[in-house]
Design a protein that fits this description.
Elements lengths: L9 E6 L5 E5 L2 E5 L4 E4 L9 E7 L4 E6 L4 E6 L2 E6 L7 E4 L2 E5 L2 E2 L12 E5 L3 E6 L2 E6 L5 E6 L9 E4 L2 E6 L4 E6 L2 E5 L3 H4 L4 E5 L4 E6 L2 E8 L2 E9 L8 E7 L4 E6 L4 E5 L4 E3 L14 E3 L3 E3 L4 E4 L2 E4 L12 E3 L5 E5 L2 E5 L8 E4 L5 E8 L2 E8 L2 E8 L2 E11 L3 E6 L4 E6 L2 E6 L4 E6 L5 E6 L5 E5 L4 E5 L2 E4 L11 E6 L4 E6 L2 E6 H9 L8 E3 L19 E2 L5 E5 L2 E5 L15 E7 L2 E4 L4 E3 L5 E7 L12 E4 L7 E2 L5 E5 L4 E10 L6 E10 L7 H85 L3 H23 L1 H5 L7 E7 H18 L3 E5 L5 E4 L1 H17 L5 E8 L3 E8 L6 H12 L14 H11 L3 E6 L5 E8 L1
Parallel strand pairs: 10-12, 57-63, 65-67
Antiparallel strand pairs: 1-2, 2-3, 3-4, 5-6, 6-7, 7-8, 9-10, 11-20, 12-13, 13-14, 14-15, 16-17, 17-18, 18-19, 20-21, 21-22, 22-23, 24-25, 25-26, 27-54, 28-29, 29-30, 30-31, 32-33, 33-34, 34-35, 36-37, 37-38, 38-39, 40-41, 41-42, 42-43, 44-45, 45-46, 46-47, 48-49, 49-50, 50-51, 52-53, 53-54, ...
């Protein structure tokens, strides 16, 4: 075996406590797990010429010999590492001028030279033996006491030395004795002759305690127990001398012998309980089909070859046959088979040398059968199919002919009444009592073979359609194997432990019958078949199954199956199954980004990785398919992945996060899986982290909230604007309404004001006109006419200013040019002078000619007009005096009359009108409109007006005009 080896030169082989096999080579060491090699060569050592293994396997301490190094390569915990050397790991060296070399292994080609090496020694647990100066010296480990054990011992005899524990044995071929050394004592013991045979060679490895005796290609294993040396034959390997074998190791668990060659790499030889018997005749193939049981441990074919375990021999002479598919024995032991479209009967009493031939003219014999005491033959006659039933074993006497719809390949007698006829279209159930086919089972299935197990169940195999169980007269398919090799199964045999052995086109399968029946009743867990192939000692994986019979259970308990390279013999009691231990799985190596990583408790995959590989280390040295090694990640979409021979699980395109890798395998025949879990963390980019996602979600939420808030604020602002607009509109509407109302009030006030202001002059003119009408005195009339004229003239002037009168409440409070208060008063005095004169009242204007203001002229005219008008109305035979005064912030115009005067209530009321706030609604009492209008106009120009009693009578009104 050189596949996977970096070179063909192997120095030593050992198996550690974990089950891994280690190979030392030039420049490297290799670890083998039964499927793959792991190479270690990256060591910081000057010399990489590795040699023998030594140390203690049980203590997990295996060292590798390396010449002239102060450091040691130690294999521990399934991994090699460099450590500093100490006394424990000393392999040899120089001491006090002598060259020492430790013996840890004896090989076939070992040589011991005394002129270069001064002392060879064997180091044991309690002491050491030194072979120097032709002496054997024992040094006790504790006391360091040196004991001379023997003298006259030549070092070239060491090539026949081996040891078991504290015992050292040296074979002496000359004296045919075995020298035994034990704790410094020497004795001689008897042993099998192979130990002392000069032609035998020995192989011994101290660390494993294994000793092999080799003679003429035959390899024996030596054991020491009960004080006796014993040998057991392992196998024969004739090329062991050619390979210059330098290393050997026998794995007793899986019965494999590993031979390391210095030129041909690694040979793995399997010791198998399967035996393939071949005829070994020149120019003849080894393909085997039908045979009959012959004796207790053999089978016999129609060619006259008797096949036994590991041997074959000819019983009778017969030509090579190309029609070897049907054979059985009749009631007297004669051989019956088909040959050249006829039935041949070879007579046992002649030693099978004579035979008769029976044929049916014009008809083809497709097959001959014996089952349940019935002898039959399937016949084809012009595309019509029949089954001929013979009278016992008399093939010349046909007892019954059964017409069939298909060609019959299998005849199986279910009971006395029912006969199962297997064909390419299913199983026809024929009833003898009813003389017809009463039903068909497994319609459309191409039936190959039928058999009955000990529990009475009927099973049948098919061509490429699997295995079926007949249950309640229905065909129920048996669950297939994971590779569907059993789709073309051949035949079933049941052993003493209810295990079913199934031959197929690709291996021999084994499964417990109860597991199949239970699964077919309540399928709860996967069915696991155990498959035997060439890895288990078969010469060929392909068995044959279209013949009849196609399997045998011999009297000595052996099963026999025909194959493409002979008959396979085995005793099912001796055939073992191999499973790894429950703890024999290690998930500690991975390759990430092309770099090998040693794992501790988890696998960490950095962000951005593309592919990663996890190596599943299981020391298993049989067919990996049989342990159903599978793995998966524990995410929602994962399913079990079958692990192939590279024992590698590959990661690709896994989303960031934490996972568990679950690995499972079978560790026993129970079919229950062992599970192993490894945490796997896939690092995320920042934008793949949960924090980032939370951040993004937070930002999105924040943006949404901001948008909502902005929208809300916008809507609020819009609502506010709308509300303000509505409020403004409401105010405008209210103002408009108020304006309209004020306009209406204003118009009413204006009309009333005009009516009020012109009432007195008009009334005066009317009175004068009446007086004029009644008077006949020309002088009086002239006087009246003169008064009417003057009053009319002033009234005319007043009416000219009615336009400005209409705008009093809309005009500004100030004007651009100053005017005299005196002139303003004088205008009104002249208007009311004639009216006052008629009432014998005089109006005097004593205002300061220099007193000027910018206040609205029309407003002041309206104010003065109303006050003087009221004074004229309420004063008779008196006087009205108008004066003015000025201060820093205001000017005062006083109008005093000596009329009837205002009551105290009226004065309080009118004074209160000026104390109200500007926007406070004024409630008017029914005291007349004039002064109310005056109050509004005075407030409009931010002035005040006070009311006082005049002395001795009358009213004094002061108008305080702000400058």
């Amino acid at each position: 075996m050189d596949n996977g080896l970096p070179q063909n030169s192997i120095k030593d082989i050992v198996k550690d406590k974990y089950g891994f096999i280690w190979l030392s080579m030039e420049g490297r060491i290799l670890r083998y797990d039964g499927s793959n090699f792991v190479q270690y060569n990256n060591f910081k050592l000057k010399n990489l010429s590795f040699g023998d293994f030594y140390g203690n396997i049980k203590k997990d301490s295996i060292s590798v010999f390396n010449i002239s190094e102060k450091k040691v390569l130690l294999i521990s915990r399934r991994h090699p590492e460099i450590i500093a050397a100490n006394n424990t790991f000393e392999y040899g060296g120089a001491f006090k001028g002598k060259i020492y070399k430790r013996i840890v292994r004896n090989t076939i080609t070992a040589r011991y030279i005394s002129y270069y090496i001064n002392s060879y020694y064997v180091q044991l647990d309690e002491g050491s033996y030194y072979f120097e100066d032709d002496n054997i010296i024992y040094v006790d480990k504790k006391s360091r006491k040196r004991t001379l054990v023997a003298a006259g011992f030549s070092c070239d005899r060491l090539k026949r030395m081996f040891a078991y524990g504290e015992y050292v044995f040296i074979s002496d071929p000359v004296r045919k004795k075995i020298i035994r050394l034990y704790k410094g004592t020497l004795s001689e013991i008897e042993a099998p002759s192979l130990y002392t045979d000069p032609e035998t060679r020995m192989y011994w490895q101290q660390i494993s305690g294994q000793v092999f005796i080799i003679r003429q290609g035959k390899i024996y294993r030596s054991e020491f127990s009960g004080g006796q040396l014993k040998l057991s034959f392992l196998l024969e390997y004739k090329d062991i001398d050619k390979d210059l074998s330098g290393a050997m190791f026998y794995d007793e668990t899986v019965r494999k012998l590993y031979i390391g060659s210095s030129i041909n790499g690694l040979k793995i030889l399997s010791l198998s309980d399967f035996s393939v018997s071949r005829k070994n005749l020149p120019y003849q193939d080894e393909v085997c089909y039908a045979a009959v049981a012959y004796g207790d441990s053999s089978v016999l074919t129609q060619e006259g070859i008797k096949y036994s375990r590991n041997t074959s021999e000819r019983v009778f002479g017969a030509p090579q046959s190309y029609d070897k598919r049907y054979i059985f024995e009749d009631n007297t032991g004669n051989l019956v088979y088909r040959e050249n479209n006829s039935i041949h009967v070879r007579y046992k009493n002649t030693g099978f040398t004579k035979y008769d031939s029976i044929s049916f003219k014009g008809k083809e014999i497709d097959g001959v059968y014996k089952n349940g005491g019935l002898y039959s033959a399937s016949i084809v006659d012009r595309n019509q199919f029949y089954l001929y039933l013979f009278y016992h074993d008399n093939f010349k006497r046909i007892e019954k002919i059964i017409p069939c719809g298909d060609n019959i390949d299998v005849v199986f007698r279910y009971n006395k009444d029912l006969l199962y006829l297997g064909s390419g279209g299913g199983i026809y159930v024929y009833s003898f009592s009813r003389n017809k086919v009463i039903k068909q089972v497994g319609k459309g299935l191409p039936v190959k073979q039928m058999t009955r197990t000990k529990d009475g169940n009927i099973w049948f195999t098919t061509y490429n359609s699997g295995i079926y169980l007949i249950k309640d007269q229905k065909a129920v398919r048996v669950p297939p194997d994971k590779n569907n090799f059993l789709a073309n199964a051949h035949y079933l045999l049941e052993d003493q432990h209810s295990n079913i052995w199934i031959s197929s086109d690709n291996g021999l399968f084994r499964i417990h019958k109860n597991d199949l029946l239970q699964y077919m009743t309540t399928p709860q867990r996967a069915i696991t078949y155990y498959r035997y192939t060439k890895k288990h000692g078969l010469l060929n994986n392909e068995f044959n199954g279209s013949e009849n019979p196609c399997a045998h259970q011999l009297k000595d308990g052996q099963f026999v199956f025909p194959s493409m390279e002979g008959f396979v013999f085995f005793n099912p009691e001796n055939i073992r199954t191999y499973y790894p231990g429950r703890k024999d799985i290690y998930l500690e190596r991975a390759r990430v980004k092309g770099k090998m990583t040693q794992l501790k408790d988890k696998l960490f995959l950095e962000c951005g990785y593309k592919n990663a590989e996890l190596y599943i280390d299981i020391p298993y040295y049989s067919d990996l398919e049989n342990i159903y090694l599978q793995a998966k990640l524990d995410n929602e979409d994962s399913s079990w992945v079958n692990i192939r021979s590279d024992k590698t699980f590959r990661f690709s395109g896994i989303e960031p996060g934490n996972y568990n890798l679950i690995v499972r395998f079978l560790s026993s025949e129970t079919g229950k899986f062992v599970y192993k879990t490894l945490p796997v963390e896939v690092e995320a980019y920042f934008y793949q982290t949960v924090f980032f996602k939370i951040l993004i979600v937070g930002i999105i939420i924040f943006i949404i909230l901001v948008i909502v808030q902005v929208r809300t604020n916008f809507l609020r602002l819009k609502n506010k604007v709308l509300k303000n607009t509505l409020d403004h509109k409401d105010k405008e509407l209210l103002e408009t309404n108020n304006k309209l109302k004020n306009e209406s009030d204003y118009q009413k006030k204006l009309v009333e004001s005009i009516s009020h202001d012109i009432t007195t002059p008009v009334k005066f003119i009317a009175l004068l006109s009446q007086e004029l009408n009644e008077s006949e005195d020309p002088k009086t009339q002239k006087k009246y006419f003169d008064s009417i004229y003057k009053t009319s003239e002033q009234l005319y002037k007043f009416t000219l200013s009615l336009k400005e009168y209409t705008e009093l409440y809309k005009q500004e409070n100030t004007e651009s040019e100053e005017y005299s208060i005196y002139d303003l008063i004088e205008t009104k005095r002249l208007l009311f002078e004639e009216i006052a004169a008629q009432k014998n009242t005089f109006i005097s204007n004593f205002c300061d000619h220099q007193l000027k203001t910018r206040l609205n002229r029309n407003i002041l005219l309206a104010v003065f007009h109303n006050i003087i008008d009221n004074a004229v109305k309420n004063t008779s035979d008196g006087e009205i005096i108008i004066t003015s005064a000025s201060a820093e912030s205001y000017m005062e115009v006083s109008i005093a009359d000596t009329g009837t005067g205002m009551s105290s209530e009226q004065m309080t009321y009118y004074s209160g009108l000026f104390r109200k706030k500007e926007n406070e609604h004024m409630i008017f009492k029914n005291y007349g409109l004039g002064l109310h209008m005056v109050a509004q106009l005075v407030r409009k120009i931010n002035s005040e007006m006070t009311f006082h009693k005049n002395t001795p009578q009358g009213t004094l009104i002061k108008i305080l005009i702000k400058i």
